[in-house]
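task queued by scheduler; priority normal; single chain, no ligands, no partner chains; default sampling; output format set to structure tokens
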Amino acid sequence: MEYFDVYDANGNYLNKQVPRGTKLSDGEYFLVIHVWIQNSDGNFLIQKRAKTDDPIPHQWAIISGIPSSQEGPVKAAIRETYEEIGLTLSPKELTRFRRIVSDHNRYHTITHVYHVTRDVDLHGLTLNEEEVMAVQYASLETILSMVERKAFWDYEALLDDPGYFDHLRGRD
């Protein structure tokens, strides 16, 4: 069973660990990471999710995950990227450009959103078939169109953050 650490809204560790899936009390949060990988053409690496227990199964999304207990967000971003698509990142490549505290729906999360600039050969990736069905590059406009068609995770709605995608505009 996976365990994750519990934090307050400021990101202070509350010296508490709970099994994955535990409903947190008010004022308690778990960490989430998002990794946006962008190539030199300005397109983002996206993946079609394979897990049926995802919040929205079989939609397109970016690399995301929950840090394990005692694992910080940078290490989790590196681990999740490798686990999902077989790509090794270095901490220097990760630029955190957003931190979103969300009390939306049943989730209480602090999401660390990272940006990576790298030209990745999609054919050289090793996809974790339990988590990822396919990968491709897409422009931000294409991603936003996919969100409207409910083909891509709507992070604005999931995190109750209406400006989520606006922060990517300067990167496309």
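post-processing summary
- The chain has a mean pLDDT of 92.
- The chain has one domain: 3-161.
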